[in-house]
Write a structure and sequence with these properties.
It contains 18 helices and 16 strands. The chain is of the alpha/beta class and about 575 residues long. The strands form five sheets. It has a four-stranded mixed sheet with strand order 2-1-4-3, covered by helices on one side. Helix 8 crosses helix 10 and helix 8 packs across helix 14. The chain is globular.
């Protein structure tokens, strides 16, 4: 690789040296200058759509946009002067004239980028007559709420949906003042190819796209003495919820989360990591059955991500035979709470309500997706809350979360291995499965438990491993936009009679669950890396790091499930998939 070329400029009179190709926005950040932006997001290609980041460049007649203008040698740039600030303020006032003045009742109140800019520019009154289209709110998905009147036409959600995720559920309709974001064909979102991943919500700067808030329903259950309300927390939530309370990304607050959930009134505190260990027992056994005993076709593809399952059923139904039939950890914990735990504690399962705290908006959809999600005889998981919803409940309660001493989860469904934690990041499900599959294949402990080849934020990661002389080729893809490339190559190999990979992990969201659509706002790759490192550390800190060594999981199989892939395990822990039309009518 050639050496990077540096170019020089001055910004507000300050000399600056940047790598060739850097934008004015990036150059300003290097010398600790903040140019305001609204449409720009670190994950996305800059479009200059909002026009707020305008600057002055000596020799240019117009005011270029800092996010899209590359620095040239010798440029003299001014980022703030009276005219520039007034133009930015006018642009904001025009945007606000087409935006509802409903901050107090908005889901993004105090976390809205538009609201923050309006405050920064001291906008206290309307400068222009309001022009509101009064479009209907779309609640059709049961996971996400689209309030189209709050859209500022920045284009982030459209880019995320089309380019990053490859779903194409959203597009721009009409032109000029009538331009708006909507599903193609102006249909309801539930009728579009939407897979409810929530990445549009995670990248939206305003309250135009938010998750369906179900905290009121959970409070009602907690206040009803007729119910025994239990809760589970997903692997990634432990290193993300702290961001809502001022902790750095990646801070592991597992014990504090257990403590606050008890104080909120939950009758039992469980951990989805336990169910992740159970998922691995079943999924690793499935892999061995296919790889060694030819019972099923290869590659085996993971299925614990509901957005990915939705995407596959709509876009790639020919891959259904490749899918692991093992349910996601959320659903496994739910069914075990209403069968195994219910029997152990002698509690009528009709009284048990299971609440899950998830990083994902699609987990709300997963609760309803098929009859197998009622394997206990009841709805296995009753309500799924996002990380953001949990934070709201904590704030409503008045509990000083940051000062709580850590506590432990309840036994039976609370103990977990480092492999269970690994489910929270891209490559983690694969790594966890390989730890146990190697033991099932060889009967010996794995010589190494970490696989650098499938870690990190590269969109597609590949590795070739050797287990007792057997080569196992694996792939990991995260962000749905990368998945299609992998599946097309698998198809081409199948047409030649070849098996390209033996095992594939897919996560819909970039970074895996740590970047889920229900996580705290402000996601960037730097934040993803810090969250992932927090989970790496949690994995390394566990005395037990392999799912098959979890003693509570061993007891579950001894006393209840018999063995992985038993008839009872299939009845309770496995599901089926069905081809579905891309557009629902």
């Amino acid at each position: 690789m050639g050496q990077e070329k540096y170019i020089h400029c001055t910004i507000n009179g300050i000399p600056c040296e940047v790598v060739e190709g850097s934008t004015i926005l990036e150059a300003a950040q290097q010398i600790y200058l903040k140019i305001p932006t609204l449409c720009k997001h670190p994950d996305l290609v800059a479009t200059g759509a909002c026009g707020i980041c305008i600057v002055r460049v000596k020799g240019m007649a117009s005011l270029p946009r800092a996010c899209t203008t590359p620095v040239e040698e010798g440029m003299e740039i001014i980022t703030h002067d009276e005219e520039i600030v007034n133009v930015r303020k006018t642009v904001l006032e025009l945007i606000l004239s087409t935006h509802p003045n409903s901050c107090l009742t908005c889901g993004r109140n105090q976390s809205c980028e538009l609201q923050q800019l309006a405050s920064d520019f001291a906008i206290r009154e309307s400068a222009f007559a309001p022009f509101l289209p009064n479009l209907p709110v779309d609640r059709s998905t049961g996971s996400l709420i689209f309030e189209f009147d709050k859209c500022i036409k920045c284009g982030r959600c459209v880019y995320v949906c089309q380019e990053m995720q490859g779903v194409w559920a959203l597009s721009f309709l009409n032109r000029g003042m009538n331009t708006r974001m909507a599903p193609a064909g102006d249909i309801e979102l539930a009728e579009a190819p939407c897979v409810r991943c929530g990445q549009c919500s995670a990248h939206c700067p305003t309250g135009a796209i938010i998750e369906l808030d179900e905290t009121a329903e959970v409070w009602q259950l907690l206040h009803n003495p007729d119910y025994h309300v239990v809760v589970q927390i997903a692997p990634s939530v432990r290193v993300t919820v702290g961001e809502e309370f001022g902790f750095p990304p990646g801070t592991n607050l597992t014990g504090q989360i257990y403590a606050v959930l008890r104080r909120l009134g939950f009758d039992a505190i469980f951990d989805t990591n336990f169910a992740a260990d159970v998922t691995i027992m079943e999924e690793a056994s499935e892999f061995v059955e296919r790889f060694v005993h030819d019972k099923g076709i290869l590659p085996l593809i993971t299925s614990c991500c509901p957005s990915w399952v939705d995407f596959m059923e709509k876009m790639y139904p020919d891959f259904i035979p490749h899918f692991s039939s093992t349910k996601s950890p959320q659903q496994i914990l739910g069914v075990l709470a209403k069968t195994y735990y219910s029997a152990k504690k002698n509690i009528d399962p009709s009284r048990i309500k299971v609440i899950s705290i998830m990083p994902c908006t699609a987990k709300k959809y997963e609760l309803t997706r098929s009859h197998e999600m009622y394997a206990s005889g009841y709805k296995d998981v009753d309500i799924a809350l996002t990380t953001r919803e949990l934070a709201r409940m904590i704030r409503q309660s008045g509990i000083d979360f940051a000062k709580l001493p850590p506590e432990k989860a309840d036994s039976i469904l609370g103990e977990y291995s480092g492999a269970g934690t690994a489910f929270g990041y891209t490559g983690g499900v694969m790594e966890a499965a390989l730890r146990t599959a190697q033991f099932f294949l060889t009967g010996s402990k794995m010589p190494r438990l970490e696989f650098a080849e499938i870690r990190g934020l590269k969109g597609v990661k590949e590795a070739s491993l050797n287990f007792n002389g057997k080569e196992i080729r694996v792939a990991v893809a995260h962000g749905l936009g990368h998945v299609s490339d992998v599946l097309e190559r698998v198809r081409e190999a199948k047409a030649r009679g070849e098996i390209l990979y033996h095992f594939i992990e897919v996560m819909a969201c970039p970074g895996g669950c740590i970047g889920g659509g229900g996580q705290p706002y402000g996601i960037t790759n730097e934040v993803r890396k810090k969250r992932i490192e927090g989970l790496y550390q949690d994995d390394r800190s566990q005395k037990v790091r392999c799912s098959h060594e979890n003693e509570e999981v061993q007891e579950l199989y001894r006393s209840f499930l018999e063995k992985p892939l038993s008839e009872k395990a299939h009845q309770l822990l496995h599901t089926t998939y069905h081809a579905r039309p891309i557009y629902r009518r």
